[in-house]
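Retro notes (design track)

What went well: tokenization of the new backbones is finally stable.
What didn't: we kept losing track of which sequence belonged to which structure.
Fix going forward: every design gets posted as structure first, then sequence, in one message. First example under the new rule, 289 residues:
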């Protein structure tokens, strides 16, 4: 397993792999005071390992915004009502939040990738743990690059030319797409963005599957139901235990993933009366090609 070390007083950045297919851990770095070499190593570790935890950060929302911008341009949030005042890119992400109808939100327990309905979806997503429950509340990430490579060549050839029409809330979604997304769709001003089902990623050698099941309205040339059948069939094949990293949160963790090469989900196995509070940022990505 590879190890990268940069000397700097007082701390020393150390990055280690957490499993053969997915996950890295970075220690000995303070994102409030980081040099170019460290930033480069962290960025590369996310590309190589699909997701990474950076331990022991102490950040205000403003400092979290600066930390996120180390990795690129911070995008505006999907739902501005949850952003910090004056910081449209930084979401205060709490399990005590309500949706527009006033009901507690429990939205991301299914496999998805963030912002896929956008023309230029996020490259990376960062979460910073401010309050966590005593037990549980993990985040899971699955490597869709490894998933794609694991498919038979014949299947890959069939999938490669396909294009998906992504919207905020698919009419044929098999999981909850959330009341906020439905309300936005109901306003009727959403044009689908078409993305390649198999995409390249800047800086990565291998192609990746790229789709968010609850947001695919249809695959070009197929009806919505048949599209969902096909996508769920792919998921059954590629979501394998060895491609999954389960992040057990510690306070002060920044956990981030390559949102172009993975799916993620929240695990709702914790005491719902305990507060789980995170800050959330997305980094602008390239148009999938
Ligand atoms: C997200 C997300 C998962 C979690 O922030 O985009 O899906 O564990 N989070 O809260
Ligand atoms: Mn998400």
């Amino acid at each position: 397993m590879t190890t990268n070390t940069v000397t700097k007083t007082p701390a020393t950045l150390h990055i280690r792999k957490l499993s053969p297919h997915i996950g890295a851990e970075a220690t000995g770095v303070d994102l409030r005071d980081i040099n170019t070499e460290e930033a480069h190593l962290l960025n590369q570790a996310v590309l190589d390992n699909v997701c990474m935890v950076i331990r022991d950060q102490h950040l205000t929302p403003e400092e979290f915004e600066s930390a996120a911008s180390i990795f690129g341009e911070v995008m505006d949030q999907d739902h501005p009502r949850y952003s910090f005042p004056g910081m449209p890119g930084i979401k205060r992400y709490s399990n005590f939040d309500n949706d527009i109808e006033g009901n507690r939100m429990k939205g991301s327990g299914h496999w998805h990738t963030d912002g896929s309905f956008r023309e230029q979806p996020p490259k990376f997503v960062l979460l910073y743990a401010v309050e966590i429950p005593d037990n549980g509340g993990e985040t899971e990430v699955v490597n869709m690059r490894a998933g794609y490579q694991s498919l038979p060549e014949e299947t890959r050839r069939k999938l490669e030319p396909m294009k998906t029409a992504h919207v905020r809330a698919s009419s044929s979604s098999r999981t909850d797409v959330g009341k906020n997304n439905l309300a936005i769709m109901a306003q009727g001003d959403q044009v689908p963005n078409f993305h390649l089902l198999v995409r390249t990623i800047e800086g990565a050698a291998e192609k990746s599957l790229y789709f968010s099941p609850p947001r695919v309205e249809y695959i070009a040339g197929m009806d919505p139901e048949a599209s969902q059948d096909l996508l769920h069939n792919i998921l059954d094949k590629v979501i394998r235990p060895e491609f999954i990293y389960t992040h057990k949160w510690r306070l002060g963790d920044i956990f981030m993933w390559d949102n172009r090469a993975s799916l993620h989900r929240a695990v709702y196995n914790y005491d719902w009366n305990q507060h789980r509070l995170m800050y959330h940022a997305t980094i602008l990505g390239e148009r999938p090609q």
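Added context from the reviewer: The CA atoms of residues 50 and 78 lie 23 Å apart.
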